[in-house]
Write a structure and sequence with these properties.
heterodimer; A: 292 residues; mainly alpha; two-stranded antiparallel sheet; 71% helix; B: 320 residues; globular
């Protein structure tokens, strides 16, 4: 395998990591909640796509809106009616709460959807684009495109729309935001819903590129975390760069050092970045961090 | 007067635990042994989490390392069980000291996740050291010789001793200057530093002590289970359980984590036997409800009597 191929594979994987990191990082940056159930929520989207494909043969790409809306509503209800009840307690409480949620969701999926590894293979799964020696499967290219488009539109939403600006305002100064008529409870719910919705889309895209089971939820969450750490909290462009970096690092380390050390290297890198530069490689304090 | 009464109650409690193995069935012996295990882990971790206020979410890493220290020393070097335990403690202390210097500079979420990262990294490393640890195939420890009933009792008392030892360490810390320094760090680290407390040293020492205690419980667990692999000793849900126990009983109290362990472990055992298929889901919901309704811990909430009103007040107090 040539270096260029490894790099391409890494970038294709990285866009996916960026998308899973964006939602996570946004929630963390705005509400100061580390959502340990992020990966499990993504898998909900994956199972929606899987069952729609299996039962009705609906093209996986067409189920993106369905998983987005389903996980969006789930996230909204969760934040509005459960998590908002405990927001003012110590931050650790929310960490444990989301871990409780993760245990619940993973076991729910294991019980009702079984612990088997599943995958979705539409007819066009094997087709690839050939550029000289470099092979790029069309599906991965499409996934890459969708991830980048969603990340960019998320950035535009935050910068240009009223609700997006309200999210940013709430994260910077909750009291001042309330004075301008923003309801923090609703903004928190919207933020969490957006994060969950993006996770749901990630789940759908995941079914196309790899096989999955409820047990991979933790791995997805940790990758989302690494991306947020690399990129800095609540920053769209940071998540994009962090995701691509993680993707390239993972692909190249599993090629050069060995597949079995892939996770250890990713986690090790995260710990080192945390120690050396806790505000992320992209580096400045942002959003909720200002307060704490 | 009140502490004297509490101590007498505690002595009666432990006296009952001492004679229980001769009365109850093998099943409950196993359940109680498991409860003591969590009591020891929670009490040990409480030193860094409750006293010092550093959320060491991945403290189970030291549990796993302790289990592997006992496993490797017994199988590869033919060491007898009791002699491996000091090495379990030592492995935790050394690891926590080395990691503590860089990682304890982090705060809140960052520290919590760094400890998870450390745990996952150690798990992966042990998984890959196939020659020493058996990797994913696991490690089979020598099985204890003798009558099963005797073996059950042996592990019951060993685990009880481990929990009592952790409790004693925790109690002594709470009474000496070191413990007050840790609480000062929890309240305001900068102020503690200004007052002349060498905060990095104290924090690292607190973490090392907690890691040592958790390491010993890992060693006993490995011998009890007699088969370990990375997935059975580096368990994320143990971290959550441990945390939930500390919070339920009251973080920073001496006896709280043990009460938390008893309540949560016994409840989850009952759930386990009643709803085998959905046990995990119920456990997840249970943790969510504990956090929602008892964020201050069960004793703090119900000081001066039980009432549903207090639960609802808790719910309203932290709402946005």
């Amino acid at each position: 395998m040539t270096i260029v191929q490894i790099l391409v594979n890494g970038l294709l994987l990285g866009a996916f990591y960026a998308l899973i990191g964006v939602g996570f990082s946004l929630v963390w940056g705005v509400t100061n909640i580390l959502n340990l159930a992020h990966g499990a929520i993504a898998l909900l989207g994956a199972y929606i796509t899987f069952y729609m494909f299996q039962n009705w043969h609906i093209d996986p790409f067409l189920t993106i809106p369905v998983s987005f809306i389903a996980t969006f509503l789930f996230g909204y209800a969760l934040q509005r009616y459960v998590m908002n009840r405990i927001v003012k307690a110590q931050i650790l409480m929310l960490l444990i709460l989301t871990f409780g949620l993760e245990i619940f969701l993973v076991n729910f999926m294991t019980t009702f959807f079984s612990a088997d590894f599943r995958s979705v293979t539409p007819v066009y799964a094997g087709n690839s684009l050939m550029l000289g020696d470099i092979v790029i499967p069309y599906i991965r290219l499409a996934v890459f495109g969708i991830c980048v488009i969603l990340c960019v539109s998320m950035g535009i939403f935050l910068d240009k729309t009223w609700r997006g600006k309200a999210i940013k305002a709430t994260s910077l100064d909750i009291e001042a935001a309330m004075m301008t008529g923003i309801s923090p409870a609703k903004i928190y719910a919207l933020t969490f819903a957006l994060g969950s919705g993006l996770a749901g889309v990630c789940g759908t895209l995941l079914t196309l590129t790899q096989s999955f089971s409820p047990n991979i939820a933790g791995g997805l969450t940790l990758r989302a975390f690494i991306v947020s750490i690399l990129g800095g909290l609540g920053r769209i462009e940071g998540a994009l760069i962090g995701g691509l970096l993680l993707g390239v690092l993972e692909t190249s380390s599993s090629y050069f050092i060995g597949e079995s050390y892939k996770n250890a290297i990713a986690f090790g890198l995260m710990v080192i970045v945390l120690i050396v530069k806790p505000s992320g490689l992209m580096g400045r304090k942002y959003y909720a961090e200002v307060k704490h | 007067m009140k502490t004297k009464k509490n101590i007498i109650l505690l002595i009666i409690f432990f006296a009952i635990l001492m004679v229980l193995p001769y009365i109850i069935s093998g099943y409950w012996l196993r359940v109680l042994t498991q409860t003591f295990l969590f009591g020891a882990i929670a009490t040990g971790s409480n030193i860094i989490i409750g006293y010092t206020g550093y959320p060491a979410f991945g403290n189970i890493a030291f549990f796993g390392v302790g289990a592997y220290v006992t496993g490797v020393l017994m199988t590869k070097y033919g060491m007898s069980f009791f002699y491996t335990l000091p090495f379990c403690a030592l492995s935790g202390i050394i690891l926590a000291t080395l990691l503590g210097i860089p990682i304890l500079r982090l705060k809140g979420h960052y520290f919590a996740i760094a400890t998870v990262g450390v745990m996952e990294t150690i798990r992966e490393i042990i998984d890959n050291l196939t020659e020493l640890t058996g990797g994913g195939l696991g490690l089979t420890l020598p099985i204890m010789q003798g009558d099963p009933a005797h073996i059950y009792k042996f592990f019951y008392y060993a685990m009880l001793a481990c929990m009592v030892f952790a409790l004693l360490v925790s109690f002594i810390i709470s009474k000496i200057k070191f413990g007050y320094a840790l609480r000062a760090i929890k309240v305001d680290e900068d102020a503690a530093s200004v007052m002349g407390i060498n905060t990095p040293l104290y924090k690292t020492f607190a973490w090392a002590l907690s890691a040592g205690l958790v390491g010993i419980s890992g060693g006993i667990y490995a011998y009890w289970l007699s088969y370990i692999d990375p997935n059975t000793v580096f368990v994320n849900s143990y971290s959550v359980k441990m945390f939930a126990m500390i919070l339920l009983g009251g973080a920073g109290t001496v006896i709280g984590p043990i009460f938390g362990a008893f309540i949560l472990e016994l409840i989850s055992e009952i759930i386990w036997s009643k709803f085998i298929a959905i046990h995990g889901m119920v456990l997840g919901l249970l943790i969510i409800f504990i956090i929602l309704f008892l964020p201050k811990g069960i004793f703090e909430t119900f000081r001066g009597g039980f009432s549903f009103k207090k639960l609802l007040t808790n719910l309203r107090e932290n709402s946005l």
